[in-house]
Design brief:
The protein is mostly helical. The chain is built from 14 helices and no strands.
C-alpha cells in the first residue's frame, strides 16, 4: 500500500474535512464563520506544535529552509486567507450549493497549475478517474438542497439588475476561492519538497493566521472574536473542527500532494460533498434521493481508477 500513500492520505483528508465541515457549520451559526476561522487557526498552531514536539522534538518549524518558509508562507496566505475569504463571501452571495459546485473545479485547476509549475503529467487513466469522480461529485452537489436559498444580504427584494450583479460577483468570488485553494496546494508541494508534512502545515497555518489577523484589524471584528470565545458549546465544536481541519486534514492534504500528483490528490480531497451524505442522513435525518446515491457510486468508481 506504500505505492498509494498519497491517494490514501487524500481520502483521509476528505474524511477529516467532512468531520470539520459538520463541526464548523454548527459553530459558524452560533459565532460567525470568520470568528470560527481565526480561532481554529490559532488552535491548530498549538495542536501542530504539540505533535511536532513529540514527533520531531521541535515545537516550531525552525529547521525549515528559506525556500520552504517562503513558498509555504505564500501558500498559506493564498490558500487559507484569500481562498477562504473568497469562498465564505461567495457562500453569502450565491449560497453553499452553487459555491460548492464551482469549487469542484479546484482539482482540474490544481492539475493545470501543477503541470505548469512542476511539469506534473496525468496519465489518461488518471484523467478518466478525475472526470468520473468529479461527475459524481457534481451530481451529488446539484441534488443537495440549498441550505441558504436566499443568501443575498442586500434588500429582501432587490432590483433585478442589482441582484444579477450581486450574484455575478459571488460567482467570480467562488472561482477565486477554487483558484486560491488550487494554487495554495500546488505552492505547498513546490515549497515543501521532502520536508515533514505536519511541520509544513504549521508554517501554512501561521501564515494564514497572520493574514486573518490583519483582516480582523481592518474589519474591526475583534469584539466578535472575544464574544465567540465565551460561547462554550460553539468552542467545543471549533476545537473538534480545528483538530480534524487545519491540524489533521491539512496535514493529510500535504502528505497527499507530497506522494502523488496534485490533480489526483485534489480530486480525492474534493469528495467531501459525497462523504457527508451518511452523517447527513443518520445524524441530521436528511432525505437522500436516488440521484445522490448514484452520484456517490460514480464518484467512488472514479476513485477506484486511481488505485489501478
Amino acid at each position: 500500500m506504500e505505492a498509494y500513500t498519497g491517494e490514501i492520505a487524500g481520502l483521509a483528508a476528505a474524511f477529516c474535512w467532512t468531520a470539520t465541515a459538520i463541526a464548523f457549520e454548527s459553530a459558524g451559526k452560533k459565532i460567525g464563520s470568520l470568528s470560527v476561522n481565526l480561532i481554529r487557526l490559532f488552535m491548530a498552531i498549538f495542536l501542530l506544535g504539540i505533535y511536532t514536539w513529540i514527533s520531531r522534538g521541535l515545537f516550531l518549524p525552525v529547521d525549515a529552509s528559506f525556500h520552504q518558509w517562503k513558498w509555504l508562507v505564500i501558500s498559506g496566505l493564498v490558500g487559507f486567507s484569500l481562498g477562504d475569504l473568497f469562498l465564505f463571501e461567495a457562500y453569502v452571495r450565491i449560497g453553499a450549493r452553487l459555491s460548492s459546485l464551482i469549487m469542484s473545479f479546484t482539482p482540474p485547476i490544481a492539475g493545470i497549475i501543477g503541470w505548469f509549475l512542476m511539469g506534473e503529467r496525468l496519465t489518461w487513466l488518471n484523467i478518466i478517474g478525475m472526470v468520473v469522480t468529479l461527475t459524481g461529485i457534481i451530481l451529488v452537489i446539484t441534488q443537495r438542497k440549498n441550505r441558504n436559498p436566499n443568501p443575498s444580504r442586500i434588500a429582501e427584494n432587490p432590483p433585478k439588475k442589482k441582484r444579477l450583479s450581486y450574484q455575478a460577483v459571488g460567482i467570480i468570488l467562488a472561482f477565486g476561492g477554487a483558484a486560491g485553494q488550487a494554487t495554495g496546494l500546488v505552492l505547498s508541494k513546490f515549497g515543501m519538497q521532502d520536508y515533514d508534512a505536519f511541520a509544513a502545515t504549521q508554517i501554512r497555518v501561521i501564515a494564514g493566521t497572520i493574514g486573518f489577523t490583519v483582516l480582523f484589524f481592518i474589519m474591526n471584528r475583534w469584539r466578535k472574536v472575544f464574544t465567540a470565545l465565551k460561547h462554550k458549546k460553539a468552542m467545543k465544536r471549533v476545537t473538534a473542527g480545528a483538530f480534524f481541519g487545519p491540524f489533521l486534514g491539512v496535514s493529510m492534504s500535504l502528505l497527499a500532494v507530497q506522494n502523488t500528483l496534485t490533480g489526483i490528490a485534489s480530486t480525492l480531497m474534493a469528495l467531501v460533498p459525497v462523504m457527508i451524505i451518511p452523517p447527513a442522513v443518520f445524524i441530521f435525518g436528511e432525505k437522500v434521493n436516488a440521484l445522490e446515491i448514484i452520484g456517490a457510486f460514480i464518484a467512488f468508481g472514479g476513485v477506484a481508477l486511481f488505485f489501478i
